UniProtKB/TrEMBL annotation:
<dbReference type="InterPro" id="IPR001650">
    <property type="entry name" value="Helicase_C-like"/>
</dbReference>
<feature type="short sequence motif" description="Q motif">
    <location>
        <begin position="24"/>
        <end position="52"/>
    </location>
</feature>
<dbReference type="InterPro" id="IPR011545">
    <property type="entry name" value="DEAD/DEAH_box_helicase_dom"/>
</dbReference>
<dbReference type="GO" id="GO:0016787">
    <property type="term" value="F:hydrolase activity"/>
</dbReference>
<keyword id="KW-0694">RNA-binding</keyword>
<dbReference type="InterPro" id="IPR014014">
    <property type="entry name" value="RNA_helicase_DEAD_Q_motif"/>
</dbReference>
<dbReference type="GO" id="GO:0005634">
    <property type="term" value="C:nucleus"/>
</dbReference>
<keyword id="KW-0547">Nucleotide-binding</keyword>
<keyword id="KW-0347">Helicase</keyword>
<feature type="region of interest" description="Disordered">
    <location>
        <begin position="296"/>
        <end position="337"/>
    </location>
</feature>
<dbReference type="GO" id="GO:0005829">
    <property type="term" value="C:cytosol"/>
</dbReference>
<keyword id="KW-0067">ATP-binding</keyword>
<feature type="domain" description="Helicase C-terminal">
    <location>
        <begin position="131"/>
        <end position="279"/>
    </location>
</feature>
<dbReference type="Pfam" id="PF00270">
    <property type="entry name" value="DEAD"/>
</dbReference>
<feature type="compositionally biased region" description="Basic and acidic residues">
    <location>
        <begin position="1"/>
        <end position="10"/>
    </location>
</feature>
<protein>
    <recommendedName>
        <fullName>RNA helicase</fullName>
        <ecNumber>3.6.4.13</ecNumber>
    </recommendedName>
</protein>
<dbReference type="GO" id="GO:0003724">
    <property type="term" value="F:RNA helicase activity"/>
</dbReference>
Amino acid sequence: MAAPEEHDSPTEAPQPAVGEEETKTFKDLGVTDVLCEACDQLGWTKPTKIQIEAIPLALQGRDIIGLAETGSGKTGAFALPILNALLETPQRLFALVLTPTRELAFQISEQFEALGSSIGVQSAVIVGGIDSDTYLVYILNELAGNSFMIFCSTCNNTQRTALLLRNLGFTAIPLHGQMSQSKRLGSLNKFKAKARSILLATDVASRGLDIPHVDVVVNFDIPTHSKDYIHRVGRTARAGRSGKAITFVTQYDVELFQRIEHLIGKKLPVFPTEDDEVMMLTERVTEAQRFARMELREHGEKKKRTREDAGDNDDTEGAIGVRNKVAGGKMKKRKGH
Ligand SMILES: Nc1ncnc2c1ncn2[C@@H]1O[C@H](COP(=O)(O)OP(=O)(O)OP(=O)(O)O)[C@@H](O)[C@H]1O
């Protein structure tokens, strides 16, 4: 599978196959009826090109390396043959899918469950290591009492992280380009008035905004253009005040990070963390992530149902349904944020 790219709209439908293959159906490829119906229910009227090429070979049990552009239906190209084979030889533990990122693991699991719901398929997601979400929560706890601007690279991650933090009891609010102007202003004003201590933003907020009391800027996703680093960190330490900037650097970001250090002519020191303390947060963060995913899904469905509302309801405070479940459940509200 090609490396995934983060989409702002992951549900965008891929292009159907063209030419003589245009008329092929999932049934023609050898997919069993119950799975053809599942495709139908997902609105997959015809297989995509990679699905047309991969599925018949996979159904023969052949090894495949499939390359196709992002969003072209590669997940279905391997999930359908797996489910088809499972139906032929039912058993408890059947397939292991390895992915390069946690997000992709959850996304693929959801697709397996959507395709396999009518045949009772269950999938489990196992992720390892300490996740940067957990480090973010650790840093917010360590620096509690400050006001934060957290930058993410996409609207989707901004929204997701805002939901995650709210589920953990932080007063976080998003600001991104998929929100209407009035919602954006509303978020900004709540943050400016100190009614919210964490503003999560894409680069729409990195330039020009003058909010005097930002104590800490967090680059949760490293900026792709090193100049944006300067704009982002310039949101703190304004008018003679002091401020802090913290940048998350994953193994994929080293080159971008070195470019930033080169641009600013400075080696940035490592932020000290106590791994044992970070570990202790894992369980709560994992649960909050699960709720955040549910809320994002709930919100996406609501948007589909009420088209006129599209793009206008991105404030995380709209996700009341799930939040009530969280508040009434195990998650504790945290004071002082
Ligand atoms: N035959 C089809 N018809 C319509 N939609 C489809 C079809 N197959 C897959 N999709 C939808 O297309 C979207 C993209 O599919 P998928 O995530 O598998 O792409 P991908 O090729 O794996 O992309 P990436 O490389 O970015 O991970 C998903 O929302 C999926 O539900």
